[in-house]
């Protein structure tokens, strides 16, 4: 298994001098990792993936597989397997012929080819489907054929561009675990593209959150959720309240921050300095805010809306003019009620970008 280095990799479409790059990144994907490029539509995810594949040429920077610089290598010499959103299967060919396609190009023949096709179909749970026609399969099965076709050549690098987008919600959830299992069994380094944050959280070893042409954060799903590097990440992943605060005091990995009328002790990045008097932003996840009696409350507000979700309810609460989302097991709280909110010590997170002043 090999790592993938994207060194100052940048793409600018068009030829206008001085045009801003669509996307620029410095990222290392570790050997064998399931790595996801996550971001809103149009942020340059497919552009990055296509540069790694060799379908789009970079404007600047380098792509290195292991210790081989592949920046100028054509796609078919990079040893990649690729899966697309629209499957891109040959509809008139059988399942086995579709899967065998890359092996034929590589002149792998006879019994070796058949054995490899059988193994790939087995990996994706389609043993015995080799003779079927593509149009006899469901969308989910077609996507698994596309996955088998990508892994049959035993690629060092597996690239997947929104492969689940055309499936309905339930099938999407079933298939995402299967894709991850296949990737681990095939012992390949994978770069996966999605705009769906829940999908990225569920599948990935690490995620790069992309927006405004850059990576806002490259980290594990847990850290991206609990220690968002920027306000954008906090809001894009799950649901988060990003509230303004004033630093009172800072310790090594916490800070006391005045938020509204309350003083909260929040976690902070130990290497990003903060000083008393500084204006910052704090991320408060809806589930760290607890509905409590007025006497125990750090924050007070009025419930403006309620969404019933089964075991819990999501409240919109007006706290001193800003709207705050609160997840609560107390499903009887009604809109219009005045409530108190408590915040556990260290439950909030001081957004490092707000401390460094980066816009
Ligand atoms: P994503 O996959 O994140 O939705 P893309 O990489 O497809 O984003 O596109 C990023 C931006 O680059 C978009 O603004 C898109 O319009 C633009 N773009 C993509 N491909 C081309 C192209 N071949 N020529 C010009 N602009 C392009
Ligand atoms: Mg795309």
Q: List the ligand species.
A: adenosine-5'-diphosphate, magnesium ion
Please list the strands of the largest sheet in the order they lie side by side.
Answer: 6-7-8-3-9-10
Q: Helical segment tally?
A: 9
Which segments are poorly predicted (pLDDT under 50) over 5 or more consecutive residues? none
Strand-pairing-aware structural class: alpha+beta
Strand proportion, as a percent range, falls in 25-35%
Question: What features would you describe in this structure?
Answer:
This protein is α+β, with helices and mostly antiparallel strands and 359 residues long. It is built from nine helices and 20 strands. Strand 12 (254-259) and strand 13 (262-267) form a beta hairpin. The radius of gyration is 24 Å and the shape is globular. It starts with a strand and ends with a helix. Bound molecules: adenosine-5'-diphosphate and magnesium ion. Magnesium ion binds next to helix 1.
